[in-house]
# Entry
Amino acid sequence: MLPTPGRAEIEEWVGGLWHRLVTRSAGDHHPEAAVHLAEMERPLGVLYRAFGGDRGHRVGGAALDRHHSRRRWLQRLAGSGERVALAAVENDTLRLPASIDCFADRELNRDLYLWLAALAACTATTTPLHGDWLTRNQQATKDALERFPGLAGRYRRLVVAHLGQRLAPDALPADEAAQENAIRAALLDPGSVTGLPTGTRKTRPPQPVLLWLSPLSHAAAQMPENSSLPDPEGAAAHAANSNTSEDNERKHRAERVDLPQPKSPFILMFRAESLPTWGEYVRVNRALDDEPDPNARNTARDLDRLSLARGGTPTRSKVKFDLDLPSEASDDLRLGEGIPLPEWDYRQGVLLPGHARLQPMQAREAPPATLPGHLVSPARRLRDRFAALVDSRRWQRGQSDGDEIDLDACIRYFGDRRSGGVTPAPGLYCARRPLDRELACLLLADLSMSTDAWVSNSHRVIDVVRDAAFLFCEALTATGDRFGVYGFSSVKRGHARFHLVKDFAAPYDAKARGRIAALRPGYYTRMGAAVRQATRILAEQPANRRLLLLLSDGKPNDLDEYDSRYGIEDTRMAVVEARRIGITPFCVTIDRAGGAYLPHLFGQDGFLMISDPERLPERLPKLYAELSGL
# Structure
C-alpha cells in the first residue's frame, strides 16, 4: 500500500508547480535554448583578439547586477528579471554572461556572444574614453559594423528580437517613454542619438540593453590594479577545489568599506563561558573555524555585492614569511651572489633594469642515484627508439651526386633550358645521408608549491615532474643532443630561485639523477625571470637550433604584484625576447585552465595542455621528437 502524501508534501508540490508555471509565463528565460560561456570561451577569446581586442585579456563571467528598472507584472509576480549580467571590459578580463538564454532561438543566443565580443574589441581599440554610456556604445556599434560588415545581418536580427522583448514606450510614463524611444533609435541607427532625455521628475533607470556593454564597463576598465589584495594561497586553493560549473565563472561586484568597530567597549568584558548552553550537556558536532561552509556558494551567489575591508595583516601572512625563507643551513646551496635581471612593466611600457634578482641554487643533499625501478623498462624503450631515429639516414635533395635522380629538379632544369633560360646546372640527385643534428635543448621545470598537490592516489605533481625529467634525459642521451635541466621557484622579486640539475657541459650520470630525485616543491612561480636566465644559458650554446621546454602546472604568480596581469605580461615579454634571438620556447602544462592565458604567452602553437598529468613522463620525450624533427 502506497503511503498517503501529507499536507506539507502536497503544498511543496503545488508550490513548485506554481513557481515553474509563473516563471515560464514570465518569458524572460529559455533554458532549452541556453548557450553557456564554458562552451564558447575559447572561440570567443580567439575572436576578441582577432577583432583587435587586448591580447592580454582573458574571458570570464560577468556579475549579476540589480538594474532597478521597470518590469512586467508577470516578472514581478514570479520574482524574476531583477538582475541581469551585462558584458563589460575590465582591467585584464572581458566579462561576458555565464550563460545566455534570453532568446528562444539558440542561434540568436550564440550570435549575441559573438556580437558582444566584437563590440568589446571595438570599445577597447577605437571608441574614445570620454562620453556617457549611450554615446560610447553607439560609437562602438558603428565601428563594429563598419569594420566587420559580415556582422550586420546578425546585429539586425538581434536588434529585432531584443526590441520585441522590451517594454513598449506606450506602457511607460512619459519621461521613461522618451528614454526608451531614444534607446530604440540608438539601436536601430547607431550614432543618431546624442544623449538620453532628462525627465522632469525622478524616473526609473532605463531597461538593460543586452546588446551593449554595461554602464560600469568604462569605469571598471580605468580602475587601477591593487596588488595587495590577491592571496596566492587562496587563489590556489580555489583553483584546486573548483569545477567547471558556471558558478565558478560568475563574478560579483565589490565595494570597499571600513571595518566595523564595536559600538560599546563593554562587550570586551563579556565572558561567553559564563552562560550555560546545551553544548555542555548534549553531544553536538562542533564545526571548526577552518571547515568550509557547505552553503557558502549558494549564499555568495545570492549576494548583489561583496564588501571588502582592510582589517590589518592576517596571522597566516606573518607566519608565511618565516616559513617561506628557511635558514641557510637547511636551504639548498646558493651558487654565487645572485644575478640582477630586468622585468617588463606593461603599464609603463618599459623594461625595468635589475628589478628582479635571480639566485642560482643546487640541492644540498643529493646523493648519486640510479634510475627508479618503475622507469627502467620505459627508459630502455625510449633509448632504443631514439637511437634508431637518429641513426637512420634521410633523403637530401639538390645534391651534385647521389643514389637516385631527382626528377623534380630535372624537369625544372630542362624546362628552363627549353624556354631559353640560361641557368647553371643545379644538383640533380637525391642522396641518403646521415642527418646532421646541431640542437641544444633546455628543460625548465616549475618547482612551485602547487606541484605538491596530488594528481592521483599515488602521485603528486612533483613526482610526475621527476619521472618526466628522468625519461627526458634518458631519451636525449641516446640522441647525442646537448641538453640541460633546471628548475625554478621564487619568493618575491628579490629571491627568484633557479635550481641547477644538469648543465650542458656536465654528463648525465648518477650525480645528475641524484639531483633530479632531490627536486622538491616550494614557494611561487616568477616565470619571467626563469625564462630570461634559461634564454641566456641557451644563447651561449654552439647549436643551430635551440629549444626551451617549460614544464608548468599554473600561471605566473608570486607574493607581490606578479600575481596579477603584471606577471603574465612580463612572462610574455621574456618569451618574445627569447624568440628574437632564435630560441624556440614551448610550454607543456597540466593546468586545465591554461587555455585562458597560454595563447597570449606562447602563441596558439607554442604550448601543449596534458589533461592526464600521469601521462607527462611518456608524452614529453615524444613531444621533443616532434619539435626537434626526429
